[in-house]
Design a protein that fits this description.
Blueprint lengths: L2 H17 L6 H7 L13 H6 L1 H6 L9 E2 L12 E2 L7 H6 L27 H14 L3 H8 L6 H16 L3 H13 L1 H13 L5 H13 L7 H12 L6 H12 L5 H17 L6 H10 L6 H12 L7 H14 L4 H13 L6 H13 L5 H13 L6 H13 L5 H13 L6 H13 L10 H12 L6 H13 L5 H7 L2 H9 L5 H17 L8 H4 L12 H11 L5 E5 L5 E9 L20 E9 L13 H12 L2 E7 H4 L4 H12 L13
Helix pairs in contact: 6-8, 7-8, 8-10, 8-11, 10-12, 11-12, 11-13, 12-14, 13-15, 15-16, 15-17, 17-18, 17-19, 18-20, 19-21, 21-23, 23-24, 23-25, 25-26, 25-28, 30-33
């Protein structure tokens, strides 16, 4: 009998003795099964007996203190490296025991018995089918491990068992997942799975290798462990054999792994393989798989090659291909405008019938790529508005939040949704109220039929959550209402309480600076919008943001031409923190420039008026329009309260005009007899 078979059978009988309620004599087990005693084994395999020296030295019953070695990891910080149970230890002590590192000579691999030697073996087909039927029915990691304990661990069963463990874990809550993971690491069969995985990894198919690695990484096995490092090395050796599906799984797995020599080498090999296979790619699905495989950190030259290949195949793109291209380019972190434009038009033309989550993925990927296509967004918004009754309120809110991320204001959809909210505002939960306020305030949208009644209705709902709202949430809600020009005495009083302000202003965190800026704007609204609410000294302590921008030289030259040498101010920073690009003082007749040398800084002559010329960035306007967004609209409102007439110049459109058009553009707005503050017509 070979040493491996002898050791294997010894392991099995040791486990049986360990779990059995009646203690069996260890030496009797050896004699009854014809297994040679330790001194009959060759010296070359003595390390196995050193691991079990405690069991062999007693010469009688197998003790309950038999050591179970977690040999599948080399990471000393792994929670379940080694479990040692000493005689006389209490259960509480065992629970908190520190597990020492594994000895190098304790990692001898013992091959399990083949299926043919298993008791009750009924043939591979029937036996295998039964296993996979039972595996499909498992509902937890423990179920899978208990099932695997009853069968021979072939490499296919190991791979499928690990994948099933991960699948069942995904369905659990976070608390259940932690509990099941602890049970999994303590289960003796889990180490057997990892052992067999290391032994048979060189025999496994590419799909099984990729899925096994992904499952172990997702389950939280240390990435420095021996089993994962072994899989990485075997995958490197067999990478040329990997097909599209296995490459896609492998790429997703590598994205979540920490950098190491084996991981970095495998990523480099994966990119080289993709580059070699580009000319042979015939299908769009295969191309998109390869594009996802290279990852975000791939060289730009390789991304360009894949882009050119994709552009050469655009006629083959189906609607699902076009949708999937957005997530593919987001995975690459490569905003190819040519590809995105083509796919956007394809989706816009076939928008009806596209499922909700696919539209979500398209919008999320566009946001991540900073790609804002007005045609695509309009098509999605119109589709949702025209089929409004088939969407839930939660789904519409998600659409609106993503539209706000793009700076896109779909008037029809927002008006329709506002009608629904006004019918039953009390049905909204706190999160919904805050999200709706954020969208409508940031996009500076007032429903056509309701106006200020809409923010007032949302404010009343927000007041009902006052007893359990967090200070940060309260600030978000109040700030959004201030952008819309609505003020609630109840909410303001709550916000200005000392304990609330202390938590917002003095509690260290990444949001502290944002809280200071929001409180500053709330304080400005209380001072300049003249509500029936006063601000406290504590609220006034919020520091104004220092926002200065370089002067637009094209705008400066055009103003110099128009004003013909008359003086004006540039880069004006007001005490309240507002920045004005250019300040011009005109007579009320709107025809002449006031002499600034005679102007008193404290009080301007009643015969003069001040004009604030603001150069607005494209991000300050709603996408595709000149409708100012929330903060810009509030700034214009406050400048009007300070005595300024505002001339708003959209930078992205101003730069496209000729010199003559620029002069005409500014003259019309600065010297107009009737000034329309806050509204700029499209040029």
């Amino acid at each position: 009998m070979s040493v491996h078979k002898s050791g294997n059978r010894l392991i099995r009988h040791a486990f049986l003795s360990y779990s059995s309620s009646c203690q069996r004599c260890f030496s009797s087990c050896l004699l009854r099964n014809g297994i040679p005693s330790p001194n009959q084994l060759t010296a070359g395999h003595s390390s196995f007996w050193r691991v079990h020296s405690k069991a062999s030295s007693t010469g009688c019953c197998v003790p309950r203190t038999w050591s179970r070695v977690r040999f599948y990891t080399q990471d000393g910080t792994q929670e379940n490296i080694l479990k040692t149970e000493e005689e006389g230890q209490s259960a509480e002590h065992l629970k908190n025991a520190t597990r020492p590192a594994v000895e190098k000579d304790a990692t001898i691999v013992l091959h399990p018995l083949s299926e043919e030697n298993e008791p009750g073996f009924q043939g591979p087909e029937r036996h295998g089918a039964l296993f996979y039927d039972l595996l499909t029915a498992c509902q937890s990691p423990s179920d899978v491990l208990d099932l695997a304990e009853k069968y021979t661990l072939t490499w296919r069963r190991v791979s499928n068992s690990l994948t099933k463990i991960w699948e069942t874990t995904k369905k659990l809550s976070e608390e259940q997942r932690r509990y099941e993971r602890r049970l999994m690491f303590e289960h003796p069969v889990f180490e057997q799975l990892c052992q067999r995985l290391m032994e048979d990894s060189h025999k496994m198919r590419s799909d099984d290798l990729a899925y096994s690695l992904l499952a172990l990484v997702k389950l939280g096995v240390s990435q420095r462990s021996q089993v994962i490092q072994t899989l990485l090395r075997v995958i490197q050796e067999n990478l040329n054999k990997f097909e599209e599906r296995a490459l896609s799984v492998l790429a997703n797995c590598l994205e979540e792994m920490e950098g190491s020599k084996n991981v970095d080498a495998l990523k480099a090999g994966l990119r080289l393989l993709v580059e070699i296979r580009i000319p042979k790619i015939k299908s769009v699905t295969a191309l998109q798989t390869m594009m996802r495989c290279i990852g975000r950190d791939a060289p730009v030259s390789l991304k360009r090659k894949l882009e050119h290949k994709a552009l050469s195949m655009v006629r083959q793109f189906s609607v699902p291909n076009s949708q999937y291209m957005f997530t593919t380019l987001a995975a690459m972190n490569f905003p190819s405008k040519a590809l995105l434009d083509f796919c956007s038009n394809k989706i816009a033309e076939n928008i009806h019938g596209i499922p909700f989550w696919r539209l979500m993925y398209v919008l999320q990927s566009s946001r991540d790529l900073r790609y804002h296509n007005y045609t695509l967004l309009s098509a999605i918004g119109s589709y949702v508005a025209s089929t409004f009754d088939m969407w839930s309120s939660k789904q519409v809110i998600l659409f609106l939040l993503l539209f706000e991320d793009h700076g896109f204001r779909h008037v029809g959809l927002m008006d329709t949704f506002a009608e629904t909210v006004m019918k039953d505002p009390d049905s909204l939960i706190l999160k919904d109220v805050l999200n709706i306020l954020k969208v409508y305030s940031q996009l500076n949208h007032f429903p056509q039929r309701h106006g200020q009644q809409f923010p007032e209705s949302l404010s009343n709902v927000l007041e009902t959550y006052l007893s359990k709202i967090l200070p940060a949430e309260l600030l978000r809600g109040v700030f959004s209402l201030c952008l819309l020009g609505h003020f609630s005495n109840v909410l303001m009083d709550k916000l200005q309480q000392k304990d609330v302000l202390d938590e917002l202003l003095f509690q260290e965190g990444r949001n502290q600076g944002m809280h200071e800026r929001m409180l500053h704007y709330v304080n400005l609204c209380l001072q300049l919008d003249s509500p029936a609410v006063s601000s406290t000294t504590a609220l006034s302590a919020a520091k104004p943001p220092s926002t200065t921008f370089p002067v637009n030289l094209d705008l400066l030259r055009t103003l110099q031409v128009i004003l013909e040498g008359s003086s004006f101010q540039k880069e004006v920073l007001l005490d309240n923190g507002y920045f004005i690009d250019f300040s011009i003082t005109l007579e009320k007749t709107m025809k002449n420039i006031c002499d600034l040398s005679q102007e008193n800084e404290a009080a301007i002559s009643e015969d003069c008026r001040r004009v604030a010329v603001l150069c607005g960035q494209s991000s300050s306007f709603c996408l595709g329009t000149l409708h100012p967004r929330g903060k810009l609209a509030m700034k214009m409102r406050h400048l009007a309260a300070l005595g300024y007439d505002t001339v708003l110049v959209p930078k992205h459109e101003f730069e496209t005009l000729s010199e003559e058009e620029r002069v005409e553009f500014l003259k019309k707005r600065i010297f107009a007899q009737t000034e329309t503050t806050g509204d700029v017509s499209n040029q």
